[in-house]
Sequence to fold (566 residues):
Amino acid sequence: MFGRIADALELKGETGFRVLAYRKAARTLADLGADIEALDSDGRLEEVPGIGSGIAKKIHEYLATGRMQKHDEAIAGLPAGLFEMLDIQGVGPKTVKQLHDKLGVTTPAELKQAIESGRLAELPGMGEKKGANILKGIRTGEKTGKRMYLDEAFELADTVISHMKLNTNVGQLAFGGSLRRGKETVGDIDILATGARAGDIIKHFTTHPKVRQVLGAGDTRASVLFESRDRTRQVDLRVVAEAEYGAALQYFTGSKDHNIALRAMAQTRDLKLSEYGLFQDSRRIAGRTEEEVYSALGLRYIEPELRENRGELVAAAEGRLPVLVGLKDIMADLHVHTSASDGAAGFDEVVEVCKGQGYTHVAIADHSASAGYAGGLSEDELLRHCDRVDRFNSKSRGFKVLKSSEVDIKTDGGMDYSDKVLERLDLVIGSIHQGFKKEATKRMCAALAHPLVHMVAHPTGRIIGRREGYEIDLEQVIDCAAKHHKILEINAFYGRLDLNDVWARRAMEAGVKLAINTDAHALADLAWMRYGVITARRAWLTKADVINCLSYTRLMKLLGAIRTGF
Ligand code: DGT
Ligand code: CA
Ligand code: CA
Ligand code: ZN
Fold:
């Protein structure tokens, strides 16, 4: 909020001390690493360097009321699109102000137009080079920074869908686009509806209290900027007729590449496919449902997660699409932390939530001894944990806990517990947390070759859009896993999704089994399983490829066989 106040002041033409003070406050808070509510209630905010009494008062106001008057005043009257433009690399408040004042530009899209039409180049101090740079910034922004993680995208889509359901004119309703395909990041949300009185439906959409700006609204479509978390996100709505709903949903689900290939396929049959339907001459022969459209083209129904033009059309034509794994097939989460290391929840709570999710077992896998950063368990502590699990299992019917640990793979490729301790565990998960990029491939392969290790967690270590991950030769890692019959993880945290769809598919094709695990550090995180399952579906995985779908007994048998040979 302080950053936005500074932006707003600059957009209004202010420079100097006040702007700098807000920027500094924003940076200070971002790096604080302490509980701000505790500081506030102890009256110790002003002891933090960079926070003076004015800033402290505003923080207190926000914590007490959920609002900050200064912030609301500062952004009042400024179109939300101006702030979106600030997110473009190489575009600062001065440029945005000039664009707005001189050219009336209020959104990134209008900025793009202004550059392409040559109007930007006419402004003093701008020129074509600057325009080209901004375009480049817009493109990188489109590729990375401005995209949503799946959790935010689902949350936003759910908000909009629930709101749209309140309008009694709405008939069918769904989201499409990259979110329906389960892509790891989502640019904007695409909503599709049918219903009488399209104008009324559009109005219902554009007047949601969280709509900060209407980018465009017509008789059957609208685009808005919707408040989401600390920023705004674009949501597109289309209202279509029942007879074309399936064709429109197919079209707006994409991907673009899938659509282009599908349209070409229609052409070879002298048919025309568009968002309005599948046409023979001018007669619509399909369009009401997606199934109808695919079937009229001689294809089985293709699940949205497969629609990336990665072979799904041929597979659908030949009737060999996989039956994709689903959330309801998942019997267990196999990588969960508790308060024994750096998790927030206790053993019993984890068990209860897992039961509530319909699981029959869970692997509690806290960090290992040398993971000091995460409160790792000493060998003694781990052995006591194993005793506890044994006691629990001897009493528990219908739900079991696996004795497990997320064991650091040391820099020399060795494991962070002695073999004697590892032997006691049902499931040994190897994991690299430190020494990124150096010899990661070798370390991981050493772990995969270790006779007591079953699985490697989050193999690349990437954080989507933030961290590239280790410099690792995944092909080699997959080969090692295949050779030793070891398991690779799809980490279901929406910011990791590691392995990703492409590599998980490669692993499956190499004969490697996968696990989908939340790596939960709090009870709420256990719900991330859905993001992992979506990723697995995008990787063409079936129930048979995913060890979380095995019953406890079968899983224990598999884990035993991995150690003793098949
Ligand atoms: P996003 O929002 O960047 O994460 O990705 P999408 O896939 O949601 O893309 P979006 O929102 O631009 O458009 C939604 C769908 O509409 C897209 O997946 C396919 C369809 N679509 C958009 N533009 C075109 C196009 O030029 N040709 C074809 N065939 N389809 C398109
Ligand atoms: Ca989209
Ligand atoms: Ca869109
Ligand atoms: Zn973990």
The CA atoms of residues 114 and 120 lie 6 Å apart. The two ends are 58 Å apart (CA to CA). The chain is about 45% helix and 15% strand. Residues 177-178, 187-188, 190 surround calcium ion (ligand 2) (CB under 6 Å).
